[in-house]
Amino acid sequence: MGIPIGEAVDGNDISGKVSELREIRERLELGPGERATRAQRAKGKLTVRERIEVFLDSGTFTEIEAFRRHRATGFGMEDKRPHTDGVITGWGTVHGRKVFVYAHDFRIFGGALGEAHAEKIHKLMDLAAATGAPLVSLNDGAGARIQEGVSALAGYGGIFRRNTQNSGVIPQISVMLGPCAGGAAYSPALTDFVFMVRGTSQMFITGPDVVQAVTGAKVTHDELGGADVHAATSGVASLSYDDEETCLEDLRFLLTLLPSNNQEPSPWEPSADPSDRGTDRLQELVPADPGRSYDMRAVIAEIVDDGEYFEVQPAWATNVICALTRLDGHVVGVVGNQPAVMAGALDIHASEKAGRFVQFCDAFSIPLVTLVDVPGFLPGVDQEHQGIIRHGAKLLYAYCNATVPRVQLILRKAYGGAYIVMDSRSIGADVSLAWPTNEIAVMGAEGAANVIYRREIAAAADPEALRAQKIKEYQGELMHPYYAAERGLVDDVIDPAETRSMLIRSLEMLRTKHAPLPSRKHGNPPA
Hints:
With 527 residues, this protein is α/β, with parallel strands linked by helices. The protein has helices at residues 14-30, 34-42, 48-55, 115-131, 150-166, 183-189, 208-215, 221-225, 227-234, 244-256, 282-285, 296-303, 348-363, 381-385, 388-401, 416-421, 445-452, 454-459, 463-478, 483-486, 499-509, and strands at residues 62-64, 87-94, 97-104, 135-139, 172-176, 179-181, 193-197, 202-204, 239-241, 309-312, 320-327, 330-337, 368-374, 406-415, 431-434, 439-441, 492-493. A hairpin with a 7-residue loop joins β10 (309-312) and β11. The model has no long low-confidence stretch (mean pLDDT 91).
């Protein structure tokens, strides 16, 4: 029920009115009642205001439209008109920087969206865009409010339109803290990052009951759309966590790496890690033998400031790594093949993951560093039939379209079309560096020799000896580490110990880069 406004206070008694206001605000902040709060906490969830307090710098939240109530009638709605209408909206700071936030209150109508609820969110989204500050949504809502019919659906339409208009203008981050279905799942899918909490948050378009009714398949909420499903299988979630506090703390860290909007640089932070620090350990981390695996994460940690980075979608498409980090205090985006998984080959999901990350970095003027150790695209009937050409082209399109500073580093092998796609000089990398262990070629020496000398080998008295000879000849002719450098496709072959300093010097040189795109409404990227 709404909070009754007192009528007994003298209209000229300002102090009485102020006291009444304070009382109303206190009751507003308590929420709909202790019973609903107990039910929320019994599910292992914080209340809406507790979440905001954990997320924002202490004491910085300013709420707007706290007194808003719906105007719907029918189905008993006229007797249930709580203030806030189930969503808290306002702004505060994270590490001193302005952030807008809206948070569903599951205790009121299950957090379902109605007309007034949506209008509050629209207002906040417009303020975030107008003032150029990140927008964070703390989602714990049951979708459209059925009792309000098409008005609720139109409310979601307004959110989707603003999500799209604000894309690439301000960072938009969705935190899933409860069951979110239908329209409540579509809006997060339009944002830059999606965080989820195991056991309490789910996302799906149609819930388990509908799935069972239509298909006969019986599935739980978590099996259908839980945090681990979306983090590791569908790729919808950027990250998943065991509890809300850890999730919100990691979100605070992510925001330190992002600009407030697309017209401002990411915040620079002084680093005690010397820019000319040697990276001798890289020779121990990366085997010279191109057939041996290693963890590219260890390479990234060795290169970047203080070994600290924020990996995006670490559980999905694990054969490629996408991370935000700092070099000499400046934010950069890192894309790297992961030899520890599928030898680092690119497939459909890896191309999608890396392509969207490249587009995000380019939209917000975050320079890109690409670490290459790729044997090619993953072969297979399933990959071809599911559209590896189309999906692989997404990564190619993203790099070709990117105007931010771009530095490529080839650690070992870089074969075929995958070499081109991984930000080669031919598609626009500003600087290409390589270690003396690099092998840039159309394919590996063994495969190349089998193709080129197939007939000779088949006719030889000792086919294996001739094959070994031809492999060695091909390696010596086309796969030595200086072949690409001799042709200007690699700018320099460097000592691995100089990797950090060379990347920092290259990015420093590129800091004033300006590369306008052709005049057009927008391109038509591969679907």
